[in-house]
Amino acid sequence: MNQTATRVFIVDDEDSVRNALARLLRASGYQVECFDSAEAFLERADLTSMPACLVLDLQMPGMTGLDVQRKLDQLVPIVFLTGHGDISSSVDAMKGGAVDFLPKPVRDSLLIAAVDSALARACVESRQRHEREEIEERMRHLTRREREVMELVVTGRLNKQVASDLGAAEKTIKIHRARVMEKMKARSIVELVRLVQKAGVCTADEE
Fold first, then answer.
1. Residue 65 CB contacts under 8 Å (≥ 6 apart), including other chains
2. Helices (H), the chain
3. What pLDDT is recorded for position 168?
4. d(CA 94, CA 87)
5. Across the beta sheet with 100-103, what order do the strands follow?
6. What is the CATH number of domain 141-206?
7. pLDDT digits (tens, 9 = 90+) for 67-85
8. From CA 106, how far away is CA 123, in angstroms rounded?
9. First vs last Cα of the chain: how many Å apart?
10. Closest CA to 47 of 15, 25, 71, 16
């Protein structure tokens, strides 16, 4: 993983803790950005320019770490840190998709391992998100009829069956199907099915 192409956000209201975490992670090669409150983080952090993770204090004045987690809705992988942790909070954090829940003071090796895991997840999710956006962009170039043909073709229907379903000539369906394959940049029906699945499109059989 290229650390220079990722970012670690640290949110903690204690200056000494925040600065110590930043020094450790920067010395280990990570790009780090710090915030002293959840509100400041949510207002100013750029969460979309590169894969990122969040090292987040659980208990802070104002919004808590769990409040931030709910607000982000799994947009960024989170490693929780707490000096006041309890079982219910850790359970809530993990159910919300947290990568880890570590007590303060945290061991350097545990924090780095958790950050590595969180950034690895962020990179995978970023690739999946970009791929989905690219597929959706291809779909936007389909006409309404081409979209209908595609959604039927990926269920395994033959051209004559699609023609019957749509009340069109089989020759016309063949033309639409060829245009779908071209616009979607799919070399086979199997690849077209994979693209449709990655985009989360509801096909005719699923409606």
1. 11, 38, 56, 57, 58, 59, 78, 80, 82, 93
2. 15-27, 38-44, 65-72, 87-95, 108-140, 144-153, 159-166, 170-184, 189-199
3. 93
4. 11
5. 32-35, 7-11, 52-57, 78-82, 100-103
6. 1.10.10.10
7. 999 999 989 999 999 876 6
8. 24
9. 40
10. 71
Residue 150, amino acid? M
Q: Where are the domains of the chain?
A: 3-130, 141-206
Joined together, the tokens standing for residue 33 give: 């950005």
Q: Which pLDDT belongs to residue 26?
A: 96
The owner of tokens 């077209």 is 192
Q: Which residues of 136-149 are buried (b: 16+ CB within 10 A; e: fewer)?
A: eebbeebeeebebb
**Do 53 and 79 contact (CB within 8 A), yes or no?**
yes
d(CA 202, CA 147): 11
Model-wide pTM > 0.90? no
Distance of CA 193 to the CA centre of its chain: 21
Distance of CA 185 to the CA centre of its chain: 24
Instruction: Enter the DSSP assignment of 4.
Output: G
**Would you say domain 3-130 falls under CATH 3.40.50.2300?**
yes
Candidates 140, 152, 120, 130; CA nearest to 184 is 140
